[in-house]
Write a structure and sequence with these properties.
GO terms for molecular function: L-lactate dehydrogenase (NAD+) activity. It is found in: Cytoplasm. This protein starts with a strand and ends in a 6-residue tail after the last helix. It is built from nine helices and 16 strands. The protein has two domains: 148 residues, NAD(P)-binding Rossmann-like Domain (Rossmann fold, 3-Layer(aba) Sandwich); 171 residues, L-2-Hydroxyisocaproate Dehydrogenase, Chain A, domain 2 (Alpha-Beta Complex). The strands form five sheets. It has a six-stranded parallel beta sheet, with helices on both faces. The protein is globular. It has 324 residues and is α/β, with parallel strands linked by helices. Helix 1 packs across helix 8 and helix 3 runs parallel beside helix 4.
């Protein structure tokens, strides 16, 4: 059954059952976020094994999630399709280095999803996520609000965790965002941050290192992926949980604000520029992105955001993405 806002129910199709995809799948099963989870991957034997293993986790999950192996035809009546497929980021490689390889891969994936008759929400995790979210929007023909990139949800989680440890409070009491490209040009918005209702700058001045410590913490946040990839080959658990959080916001119609990659056209000084998908807080509900939230940036932050958006725009132009 399909409504004006997409299919009814909580069937999710996951395309790409690698490290990130399986971490997301495990989070879905553990939290009971869907009644039916379908895994689609070109490595059918390994995917079969992942499906069996996930089903064996269901009895102790406290939920009743059916996990199956499927094809793109399963997207037809899904509420949400999450794409984690694509070439992985290698040690020493930036997310933007992946553009050419993954745009080519996405042509086939998104075309197959679209041709199934899918009418739900696209959730994109493959890197470079901002560019591939734009590619998905263009290739799918879906409204921009129904294409959500994971954006800076992981970077924001890393920043909040590190700041919470620094000021000795739970990260859930830290309210600060990372915005911009999910990559080397991203930026923290310290000017709008707070800790338990106290301005972040005020709270940091009470700790060793002050704002210099905040800058160090952000650098460690930004570069964490490279260190983790060097140590274990990929990042998976943090982004898997972030994807699950976005999924819950969609399926439970939460109207919650999360830092994701959305189409930005006329905010943050972008009027007159090519629209790009880029990380910013946005209101998420059952229809996808209800609206982006424009943070009030100081002059330095605005300059950083402008640089981040222009970097994405240039890479997309060089790769011919705007010609899709």
């Amino acid at each position: 059954m399909v409504t004006a806002h997409g299919p009814v129910g909580t069937k999710i199709v996951l395309v790409g059952a690698g490290d990130v995809g399986v971490a997301y799948a495990y989070a879905l099963v553990n939290q009971g976020l869907c009644d039916h989870l379908v895994l689609v991957d070109i490595d059918e034997k390994k995917t079969w094994g992942q499906v069996q293993d996930l089903n064996h986790a269901v009895p102790w999950s406290g939920h009743r999630t059916a996990v199956t192996q499927g094809t793109y035809d399963d997207c037809r009546d899904a509420a949400l399709v999450c794409i984690c497929a694509g070439a992985a980021q290698k040690p020493g490689e930036t997310r933007l280095d992946l553009v050419g390889k993954n745009v080519a891969i996405f042509r086939g994936i998104v075309g197959s999803i679209r041709d199934s008759g899918f009418d739900g929400i696209y959730l994109i995790a493959s890197n470079p996520v901002d560019i591939l979210s734009y590619v998905t929007w263009k290739l799918s023909g879906a409204p921009a609000g129904r294409v959500i990139g994971s954006g800076t949800i992981l970077d924001t989680a890393r920043l909040r965790a590190a700041l919470g440890e620094h000021v000795d409070v739970s990260p859930t009491s830290v309210h600060a965002y990372v915005i911009g490209e999910h990559g080397d040009t991203e930026l923290p918005v310290f000017s709008a941050g707070s800790v338990a209702g106290v301005r972040l700058s005020t709270r940091l001045r009470e700790t060793d290192g002050g704002m210099d410590a905040a800058d160090r913490i952000f650098r460690e946040t930004r570069d964490a992926a490279y260190e983790i990839i060097d140590a274990k080959g990929s990042t998976s658990f943090g982004i898997g949980m972030g994807l699950a959080r976005i999924t819950r916001a969609v399926l439970e119609n939460e109207d919650v604000v999360l830092p994701v990659s959305v189409l930005v056209e006329d905010i943050y000084g972008r009027s007159g520029h090519q629209p790009v998908y880029i990380g910013t807080p946005a209101v998420i509900n059952r229809s996808g992105v209800r609206e982006p939230v424009e943070l009030e940036l100081d002059d330095a932050e605005q300059a950083q955001f402008t640089h981040s958006a222009e970097t994405l725009e240039q890479v997309m132009r060089d790769a011919g993405v705007f010609d899709l």
